[in-house]
Every structure is written in C-alpha cells, then in structure tokens.
Amino acid sequence: MDIRAYLKEFGLSEKEIEVYLTLLKSGVQSVRRLAAATKINRGTTYDILKSLITQGLVSYQHREKHQYFIAEDPEKFAQVVAEKEREISSLREKLNHIVPELKSLYHRAGGKPTVRYYEGTRGLRTILTDVLESVYEKKEYLIYSTVEVRPYLHAAYPTFTQERVRRGIGVRVIAIGEGGQLKGLDERRWLSSHATGAPTYTIIYGTKVALISVSDARDPFGVIIENESIAATQRFMFEW
C-alpha cells in the first residue's frame, strides 16, 4: 500500500501527512523551516504539529529559547494502534453492560413502529450494516430485489455479499427485473426477466423492514421501519 494512503487510512489528514513525512525525512526542524518546506502557513503548521504531538507521532525540544520538532520512530504507529485496540476492548466491555438497558429504553414505546430515514451512499451502507448486525442469530433475511436500485447498493457496500457469506447469513430473494445472480447461501425467484417500474428495493430482517429507492435527482435514500407486525406481513410473500 502507498505510504500516504496508509497514513490517511490511519486517520491523518493530507496536511498532517505532509508535515509528518517532511519531518521524518528532514529530522529536527523549527516551525518556520517546516512551514517553508511544506508550503503550509506557519499558524496551520503549528496547529498540525500540536495534533501530531497529541497522537504521539511527533515530539519537541527546546534549544536556545526556540522550540524544535522531531518525528517519533515509525514504530510508534504500532504502539498507537495497540493503545486504540485496548481502548476499543475496554469500550466494548462497557457496552456489553449498558446495551441491555439501552435496548429496554429503545423499545419502551411498545408496538408503535419506529421509522428512521437515511440519505446518500453513506446512509445505504448504514442500512446494509444494520442488516448484517441484526440477523446474527437467525442467519437469514428476505429481499424484494429490483434492478434499478442494485447498483446503488453495490456502490455503498461493494463487499457486502462476501461479508454476508463469510458470516454464514442466508438470503431468500424475489427478484424483479434482470440480473441478480446467485452468489452463495441464497435462494432466488424471478417475477419476470423483463419487469421494470419497481423502483423500491425491500429488505425484511428480524423485526425490521428497509425500503430503499432513488429520488428523481438519482440520489439514493432509504427508511428502516421497525415493527414486528409490518415485518411479518412482508414475510408472507416468501412462504414458498
């Protein structure tokens, strides 16, 4: 992987990457010289250095009343990742204790449907991720698949099918329109190979129904309706 791409994936901004790599190659530097080398103004360079210091990637020293900065050993990245893993592990342990209580508050409304709205590619990915996370026990969900929406779902989560199969999650599909080949752990029925005009993609999983479509401006959006009765009604079509 390209070094800059890795550092960006690590969470650094473009300017943080520029400052860090310049400092790594040039050794100890003052803010003035570092700003000149990176062509970033001094005020912004100083703010970037403070951020890198907070992340443990840069340190500083004083010489003759002046402050100089130096990049930490690249091994520091492994230490930072290890520390983040410890923090995540601690957070996960805390969540295991509070999630049951949060769920009781979440469902306190009883049988009243909960509706959540999502927009754009990121919103679609949130919906698809919710599908994977919600069916970890039953390991199956249902789909009314339409050719008009499939490309947007793939763009939002290109590896979704691979992740579904990896988790051992099955899917039963009623496909509207062409395409939608079998990919593993799936059953599929086609209503018509020439069908069009079905612009809504429906996913039934657990007590939820996700409806995904595209606006007139070709922007994807979706809603998740959480209600056992609505989900049960949608499931009737799949009694084959």
What's the helix count?
9
Regarding CATH, which class of the largest domain? Answer: Alpha Beta
Q: Report the mean per-residue pLDDT as an integer.
A: 87
Task: Tell me the number of structural domains.
Answer: 2
Q: Which class of secondary structure composition applies to the elements?
A: alpha+beta
Topology, number of strands: 10
Largest sheet entry: 7 strands, mixed
Question: What does the overall shape look like?
Answer: elongated
Placed side by side, the strands forming the largest sheet appear as 4-10-9-8-5-6-7
Give the strand content.
Answer: 25-35%
Low-confidence stretches: none
Termini gap: 48 Å
Q: What's the CATH architecture of the largest domain?
A: 2-Layer Sandwich
* Helical residue percent band: 40-55%
Give the name of the CATH superfamily of the largest domain: Endonuclease Chain A
CATH topology of the largest domain: Endonuclease, Chain A
Rg calc:
25 Å
Protein name: Transcription regulator TrmB N-terminal domain-containing protein
Organism: Candidatus Uhrbacteria bacterium RIFCSPLOWO2_02_FULL_49_11
